[in-house]
Design a protein that fits this description.
345 residues; mainly beta; 4-stranded antiparallel β-sheet; 1 helix
Length: 345
C-alpha cells in the first residue's frame, strides 16, 4: 500500500495478490432413454488460479464535512458451487447432457467511481456515487451441440442407428463468455440519527440507498442486450432503534424487473407477433421486509432473533411477456424466523 498526503489531496494506492486452489467431488448420473435411473459414478477435478487486484483512490477534502473521491479497483466474483461442481447429468430421452464446469474463471471487473460525501454533525451522511464497470469472463449457461462416440455414454447407445459410431446431442454447460459487458449508473445513499424526535423516538436512526444502473452485454446474438441478473433499479431502506441493551432493525428491499436468461435461438410466439423472436427469461420485480432484534443480557451473553418474509411477496418469472408466457411463480408461505443465544468469551 502507498499513502501520500498533499493537503487537500490524499492518494491511496496498492495491489493485492490472491491465489485460489480448488478440489471438487461430484457425481455422474445417467438415465436411460425411457427416463429411468440407470447409474451413478463419482467424479473429481482440481483447478487453481492467481489474481492481482490493483486499486487507487484520490481524495479531495473540500472541508471538514465534505469530500470528493475518484477511485479505481479490480475485483472478481467467483462462480457458484453449482456451476463448478463436476457433475454430469445424462438424459438420453432429451438427447441432453447437463454438466458443471470446474475450469470456469471468475467474473472480472475494472471499477471506476466518482463520488461526493457529506457528513452531518450527528454521525449521519449523504453520498452520491457515479460508477462504471467493465466486465469480462461473464458466466452463462450455454447449450451447444456435442458429438459423442458409441459407448462414450452407454445410456445413449440406444439412440445410435445400425452402423453409426457417433451422433450429435445437446450439451448445457456453464461457460465463460468471450464477450465483454459494461455496467454504469449512480447510487444515492443517506444515513442519519433521528435524535431530534421527542421521547423514545429520539433513539431511532434511518438509512436508505437507491441504485440506478444500465448494463450493455455484447453476447453471441447480433445485438446488444441487457446483462442477465442485473436489475436497473434497487432500493434498500432500514429503520434502527437502540436503547440501552435493546436494539432492533426493520429492513425493506425492492428490486425492479430484470433479465435472468438470454435465449440463443429465436422461436415462434404467436401471442406476441408473427415473426420468430427471442423468448428471453425475466423475473418480475419483488419486495421483501424483514426484522432483527437483540438484547444484551450481559457483556458475554446476547439474545437475538431474525424475522423474514413479512410481505409474503410472489416472485414471478416469465418468457418475454408476463401476460402470455409466465413460466413460474415462487411464493414463500408464512413468516420465517430464527433465534439464538450468542456467547462471547
Amino acid at each position: 500500500m502507498l499513502d501520500i498526503e498533499y493537503d487537500p489531496f490524499t492518494l491511496m494506492a496498492g495491489i493485492r495478490a490472491e491465489f485460489s486452489n480448488m478440489d471438487y467431488d461430484g457425481r455422474k448420473v445417467e438415465f436411460n432413454r425411457f427416463g429411468q435411473f440407470d447409474s451413478v459414478k463419482n467424479t473429481s477435478a482440481t483447478n487453481s488460479y492467481m489474481n492481482l487486484f490493483p486499486n487507487a483512490r484520490l481524495l479531495y477534502q473540500i472541508n471538514d464535512q465534505s469530500e470528493i473521491h475518484l477511485a479505481y479497483s479490480k475485483t472478481i466474483r467467483r462462480p457458484d458451487f453449482q456451476m463448478l461442481n463436476p457433475f454430469v447429468l445424462a438424459l438420453p430421452q432429451d438427447t441432453l447432457l447437463y454438466a458443471g464446469n470446474t475450469e470456469l474463471d471468475p467474473l472480472k471487473a475494472d471499477n471506476f467511481d466518482l463520488g461526493w460525501n457529506y457528513a452531518f454533525s450527528n454521525k449521519g451522511f449523504i453520498s452520491v456515487n457515479v460508477f462504471f464497470k467493465s466486465l469480462s469472463d461473464y458466466i452463462d449457461l450455454r447449450e451447444d451441440e456435442l458429438t459423442i462416440q458409441r459407448d462414450e455414454y452407454p445410456v445413449f447407445n440406444g439412440l445410435f442407428e445400425d452402423g453409426e459410431n457417433q451422433i450429435t446431442i445437446h450439451q448445457q454447460k456453464f461457460q465463460n463468455s468471450s464477450n465483454n459487458a459494461t455496467l454504469y449508473g449512480v447510487e444515492l445513499a443517506i444515513q442519519n440519527e433521528l435524535n431530534f424526535l421527542p421521547g423514545v423516538l429520539s433513539n431511532l436512526s434511518a438509512k436508505a440507498n437507491y441504485t440506478y444502473s444500465q448494463a450493455e452485454f455484447d453476447g453471441d446474438r447480433s445485438e446488444t442486450t441487457a446483462l442477465p441478473g442485473q436489475s436497473p433499479h434497487v432500493v434498500n431502506a432500514a429503520v434502527n432503534y437502540k436503547q440501552d441493551r435493546f436494539s432492533a432493525q426493520l429492513s425493506y428491499h425492492w428490486t425492479a424487473e430484470m433479465l435472468t436468461n438470454l435465449q440463443e435461438t429465436a422461436q415462434d410466439a404467436p401471442s406476441i407477433g408473427n415473426n420468430p423472436m427471442y423468448l428471453d427469461r425475466y423475473q418480475d420485480g419483488y419486495s421483501d421486509l424483514s426484522a432483527s432484534l437483540s438484547y444484551q443480557l450481559s457483556d458475554e451473553v446476547q439474545l437475538w432473533a431474525n424475522i423474514y418474509n413479512l410481505l409474503f411477496t410472489e416472485q414471478i418469472e416469465y418468457a418475454e411477456n408476463r401476460e402470455f408466457y409466465p413460466t413460474s411463480i415462487y411464493k414463500r408461505e408464512g413468516i420465517e424466523f430464527n433465534a439464538g443465544v450468542r456467547f462471547s468469551l
